[in-house]
């Protein structure tokens, strides 16, 4: 099945620890995105990448880092510098050539920092 | 900041049409109107998009006013499974397919 996967679904970490969230897609999409969602709020863009080995900061990049070494993978690291990391994290991908211009979303990872 | 304005919440009776409005008075000529929905604790799902003509697919219809300053998403026969947050987003397709999410409309379909 083609799609975008995120793991794990739930993640617990102690304060001060870095944690890496996984995002993989087998849709051959060029672009990938990371969003954060807080309760009752819309999604906010953290980072995005339109090509391998290149990525750009979104609206709330502070305290986060990413890499794009392979087209199908875009992991997000939540560092100890992120002041309030507990949130729902969503990864998405999109083709930049043709298509409808829509983003396809993964199921999300709910991170709780204790 | 999001470029769209939507009501915070709406109710709809099961089996009736759900009409979700969206204002986007500052939309640019190259920007499309996209609609996504997010069922609780899941990732958002693309529904439909349009530039200036009305559009219909298997999920919904999109009506865009002639001046493009507002639009309406129509779910013709709402079911309980359509209960979700619906996001109206304007986006230029040649800009990396970027999306800016607002608060959306929380649609509650009631039996």
Describe the structure.
- The complex is a heterodimer of chains A (114) and B (111).
- Chain A is mainly beta.
- Helix content of chain A is 0%, strand content 49%.
- Chain A is built from no helices and eleven strands.
- Chain A has strands at residues 4-7, 10-13, 19-25, 31-37, 43-51, 54-57, 64-66, 76-78, 87-94, 104-105, 109-113.
- In chain A, the strands form two sheets. In chain A, strands 2, 4, 5, 6, 9, 10 and 11 form a seven-stranded mixed beta sheet that branches. Chain A has a four-stranded antiparallel beta sheet with strand order 1-3-8-7, with no helix packed on it.
- The model of chain A has no long low-confidence stretch (mean pLDDT 94).
- Chain B is mainly β and 111 residues long.
- Helices cover 0% and strands 47% of the residues of chain B.
- Chain B contains no helices and nine strands.
- Chain B has strands at 9-13, 18-23, 31-38, 45-50, 55-56, 61-64, 70-75, 84-92, 105-110.
- In chain B, the strands form two sheets. In chain B, strands 1-9-8-3-4 form a five-stranded mixed beta sheet, with no helix packed on it. A four-stranded antiparallel beta sheet of chain B has the order 2-7-6-5, with no helix packed on it.
- The N and C termini of chain B lie far apart (35 Å).
- In chain B, 35% of the residues are buried.
- Chains A and B meet through strand 5, strand 9 and strand 10 of A and strand 4 of B.
């Amino acid at each position: 099945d083609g799609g975008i996967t995120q793991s794990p679904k739930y993640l617990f970490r102690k304060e001060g620890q870095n944690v890496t969230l996984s995002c993989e897609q087998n849709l051959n999409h060029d672009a990938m995105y990371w969003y954060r969602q807080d309760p009752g709020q819309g999604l906010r863009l953290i980072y995005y990448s339109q090509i391998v080995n290149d990525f750009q900061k979104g609206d709330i990049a502070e305290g986060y880092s990413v890499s794009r070494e392979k087209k199908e993978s875009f992991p997000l690291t939540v560092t100890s510098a992120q002041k309030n990391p507990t949130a729902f994290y969503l990864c998405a991908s999109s083709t930049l050539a043709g298509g409808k211009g829509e983003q396809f979303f993964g199921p999300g990872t709910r991170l709780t920092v204790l | 900041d999001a470029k769209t304005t939507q009501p915070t919440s709406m109710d709809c009776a099961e089996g009736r049409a759900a009409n979700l409005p969206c204002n986007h008075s500052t939309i640019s000529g190259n920007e499309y109107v996209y609609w996504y929905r997010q069922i609780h604790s899941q990732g958002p799902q693309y529904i439909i998009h349009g530039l200036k003509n009305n559009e219909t697919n298997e999920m919904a219809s999109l009506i865009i006013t002639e001046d493009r300053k507002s639009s309406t998403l129509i779910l013709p026969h709402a079911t309980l499974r359509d209960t979700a947050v619906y996001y109206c987003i304007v986006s230029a397709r040649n800009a990396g397919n970027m999306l800016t999410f607002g608060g959306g409309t929380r649609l509650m379909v009631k039996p």
